[in-house]
Amino acid sequence: MYGEIEENKYEGMVRLRDITDDFYVLDEKNYAIIDQRKKKNFQLGDEVQIRVKKVDLDKWQIDFAFLS
């Protein structure tokens, strides 16, 4: 899942394997990830809470951690 910080428009990735509260699967047709137990989902454009997990200045990459 990709995220963006609205204040500065920085973009980065939240790795699905790092979201540990449940098992999510990708629904490519609907541009969503779906929680298999609780049946909650996140679709393109949904607002979520993230924090910066790692920054690689050599590769110009930002990894985020999912908070909600």
Describe the structure.
With 68 residues, this protein is mainly β. The protein has one domain. The chain has strands at 2-5, 10-13, 24-27, 32-35, 41-43, 50-56, 61-66. The chain has a three-stranded antiparallel β-sheet, with no helix packed on it. The radius of gyration is 12 Å and the shape is globular. The model has no long low-confidence stretch (mean pLDDT 85).
User: What does the oligomeric state look like here?
Assistant: single chain
Low-confidence stretches: none
- Tell me the number of helical segments per DSSP (H or I, 4 or more residues long): 0
Order of SSEs: EEEEEEE
Compute the number of structural domains.
Answer: 1
Q: How does the overall form come out from the CA principal axes?
A: globular
Helix content: under 10%
How would you classify the helix and strand content by structural class? mainly beta
Strand-residue fraction?
Answer: over 45%
Mean pLDDT: 85
Would you count the extended β strands for me? 7
Main β-sheet: number of strands, strand sense, barrel status?
3 strands, antiparallel
Protein name: S1 motif domain-containing protein
Domain S1 motif: 1-67
InterPro entries: NA-bd_OB-fold, S1_domain
Organism: Sphingobacterium paramultivorum
Question: What's the gist of this structure?
Answer:
It is built from no helices and 7 strands.
Strand and helix map with partners:
Blueprint: E1 2-5, E2 10-13, E3 24-27, E4 32-35, E5 41-43, E6 50-56, E7 61-66
Antiparallel strand pairs: 1-2, 3-4, 4-5, 6-7
For this entry, give a set of tags.
single chain, about 70 residues, mainly beta, three-stranded antiparallel beta sheet, two-stranded antiparallel sheet, about 0% helix, S1 motif domain-containing protein
